[in-house]
UniProtKB/TrEMBL annotation:
Residues 6-273 form the CobQ/CobB/MinD/ParA nucleotide binding domain. GO terms for molecular function: ATP binding; ATP hydrolysis activity. GO terms for biological process: negative regulation of cell division. GO terms for cellular component: cytoplasmic side of plasma membrane; cytosol. It comes from Entomospira nematocerorum. Keywords: ATP-binding, Coiled coil, Nucleotide-binding. Residues 350-377 form a coiled coil. This is MinD/ParA family protein.
Length: 381
C-alpha cells in the first residue's frame, strides 16, 4: 500500500480538490484507492465527490471501541474508489488524544488498497503533522503567493521538530537538550535547523544517527496550485531552495496546476473537474501528476530521486506551465466565440481577479510589516 498524505500550510489553496481528483484519476487506472477525510472538525471532502448525507466516518470509529474501520468505507460511484468520511457529526475531534490518534493510525494501516490518500486539515497542528509523517512521501499543496509558500515552509519546519521529538527518547540527552531550549524561552521557530542539528549531534551522539536516518527518508513532494501565469511556476524552485538551505531536506516537484474557471461549475454539478472537463487544463495537469506518482516505485520505502532528477523536475514543471497557459487562453477564446462564456462572465472573471489582487496586496503589506518587525527582533527564517 502506498500512503499519500496531502497537506497545506494554510487553507484556500485547493488541497481537497487536488486530493479528490488525484484519487479518482488513480482509480481510473484500475488501482484500488481509499480516500480519507482527516480534516477532523471541518471535513467536507465528500462534497467534491458528489456524496451527500454521510452520517458516519472517522468520528464514528473513534467513539466506538469495537468498530472495524473497514466497515465505514463508502463505495463511491467511481470504480475502485472508496471513501472514509471525517467526523461524521461527532463533536470535539479537532484535538485527538494520543490514544485516539494511535488507534486511528493503526486502523488505517489495516486497510487493503493500492493507494491510501489522506486529505489532512490545513495548518501545522500536531495531529495534522503527525498524520503527514505516516509517510515520508507526503504531498504539500501550495499556491504562488507569499502567505501560502511561507506557511508551507513552516509546516515542513514543524514536521522536522516532530521527527526530533519522536526519534529522541524521553529522558535522552537529545530530548533534555530540546527541553532546555524551551525552558530558556527560546522560540524554536527562530532557530536555524542546520545549527540546531549540529548542537543535537554533539548533545546526543548515541541517538542522533537514528534521527538522521529518519530525516534522510523524509522527502515530501510539492504541487504548486492556482497559477495565473507561467512565471509563477518559478516560485516552486525558490521555495525548494529555501527548504534545502534552511531545513536540510529536498522536495520532488510533482507539477503545477493553473487556476481553472470550470472548477466552480464542476463542484456545483457534483462532478470532479477531471470528469467534468477531462480535456481541460486542470485535468491534464492532474493526469501528469498521477503519471509521476505511478512511475515512482510503489511503497513508502521506495528509493528517493537523486538531486539531478529533482532539479530536472522543477525545470519540466516550468515548461509545462507555459504550455498550459497557452492552452488555457485558447480555451477561453474558444468558449467566448461559441457563446459558452458571455461578456458578463468575462467581466465577472476580471472583477474576481481584481478583488484577489487587492487582497494579495493587503496580505503582502501585512506580511511585509511582520517581516520587517521580525528582522528587527532577530528572527531567523
Amino acid at each position: 500500500m502506498t500512503i499519500i498524505p496531502v497537506a497545506s500550510g494554510k487553507g484556500g489553496v485547493g488541497k481537497s480538490t487536488v486530493s479528490s481528483n488525484l484519487a479518482i484519476t488513480l482509480a481510473k487506472k484500475r488501482k484500488r484507492v481509499v480516500l480519507v477525510d482527516l480534516d477532523l472538525g471541518a471535513g467536507n471532502l465528500h462534497i467534491t465527490l458528489g456524496l451527500k448525507n454521510i452520517s458516519y466516518g472517522v468520528g464514528t470509529f473513534l467513539v466506538t471501541p469495537s468498530m472495524d474501520i473497514t466497515d465505514l468505507l463508502v463505495r463511491t460511484e467511481y470504480h475502485d474508489l472508496f471513501f472514509l468520511a471525517g467526523d461524521g457529526g461527532v463533536v470535539g475531534l479537532a484535538n485527538l488524544t494520543f490514544q485516539q490518534k494511535k488507534r486511528l493510525i493503526e486502523a488505517l494501516m489495516t486497510i487493503q488498497c493500492d493507494y491510501l490518500i489522506l486529505d489532512l486539515g490545513a495548518g501545522s497542528g500536531f495531529n495534522t503533522v503527525d498524520f503527514f509523517l505516516i509517510s515520508g512521501r507526503g504531498i504539500i499543496v501550495t499556491a504562488p503567493n507569499m502567505a501560502a509558500t511561507l506557511t508551507a515552509y513552516l509546516f515542513l519546519k514543524n514536521a522536522i521538530f516532530r521527527i526530533i521529538a519522536s526519534t529522541f527518547p524521553k529522558e535522552s540527552k537529545g530530548a533534555l537538550f530540546m527541553d532546555h531550549l524551551k525552558r530558556d524561552g527560546l522560540s524554536l521557530q527562530k532557530i536555524y535547523i542546520s545549527k540546531l542539528l549540529e548542537q543535537l549531534k554533539i548533545a546526543d551522539p548515541e541517538n542522533f544517527p537514528r534521527f538522521e536516518k529518519v530525516l534522510k527518508a523524509f522527502r515530501p513532494r510539492l504541487i504548486m496550485n492556482m497559477l495565473d501565469e507561467p512565471s509563477s511556476a518559478s516560485k516552486a524552485e525558490r521555495l525548494r531552495r529555501t527548504i534545502v538551505q534552511y531545513l536540510g531536506i529536498d522536495m520532488e516537484h510533482l507539477g503545477v496546476i493553473f487556476r481553472d474557471e470550470t472548477q466552480a461549475r464542476a463542484l456545483a454539478s457534483g462532478l470532479p473537474v477531471v470528469l467534468y472537463k477531462p480535456q481541460g487544463v486542470m485535468a491534464q495537469a492532474i493526469n501528469r501528476i498521477v503519471e509521476r506518482i505511478s512511475r515512482t516505485q510503489e511503497g513508502n520505502m521506495a528509493p528517493f530521486l537523486n538531486a539531478d532528477d529533482i532539479e530536472a523536475g522543477y525545470k519540466l514543471a516550468e515548461a509545462e506551465a507555459s504550455e498550459d497557459y497557452i492552452e488555457k487562453m485558447e480555451s477561453v477564446e474558444t468558449l467566448f466565440k461559441e457563446g459558452a462564456i458571455s461578456d458578463g462572465d468575462l467581466i465577472e472573471t476580471l472583477r474576481t481577479q481584481q478583488y484577489e489582487l487587492n487582497q494579495l496586496r493587503k496580505e503582502n503589506r501585512f506580511l511585509k510589516s511582520k517581516i520587517v518587525k521580525a528582522s528587527k527582533d532577530g528572527y531567523q527564517f
